[in-house]
Design brief:
6% helix, disordered C terminus, mainly beta, OB fold (Dihydrolipoamide Acetyltransferase, E2P)
Length: 140
């Protein structure tokens, strides 16, 4: 069986790198995706979905070094599910309401913002941070 998810969005905060007990690096960051549409009554609706992303190994170091809040990235990986529910990980907020986290374990992270852009718009040339070659054109 196979599971894969691809998400394109902007980082909501700077990545945070830490080390596992065996010394392997892991970097975490949040990624926001937006969807805008017009509802039945003609009103504009903007919907934002947040994902928590974890990246391991050499790619974790690269992501931590080159990505920052507001930068656009493409993440390919697998969803990490709550073993109890089989769905997103749920938790209770401080105000007592229940919330859910969509968590992705990344296999590939591509940088979509130019080096000098902090929060511009539109996809541009992407670089696969897992390879030493740069300049792959994203086909969309």
């Amino acid at each position: 069986m196979y599971q894969s998810i691809t998400v394109i969005g902007r980082l909501g905060r700077d990545p945070e790198m830490r080390y596992m007990p065996n010394g392997d690096p892991v970097t975490s960051f949040s990624l926001a995706t937006d969807r805008a549409y017009t509802d039945k009554s003609g009103g504009k609706v903007k919907e934002t979905t947040w994902f928590r992303v974890s990246v391991f190994g050499k790619q974790a170091e690269t992501v931590n070094q080159y990505l920052s809040k507001g930068k656009m990235a493409l993440v390919e990986g697998r969803l990490t599910v709550d073993v109890k529910t089989g769905g997103p990980k749920t938790y209770t907020r401080q105000d007592g309401t229940v919330a859910a986290n969509f968590e992705i374990t990344a296999q590939t992270v591509r940088f979509l913002s130019p080096k000098d852009e902090s929060s511009g718009s539109g996809p541009v040339e992407g670089v696969d941070s897992g390879s030493s070659e740069g300049g792959d054109n994203i086909p969309f």
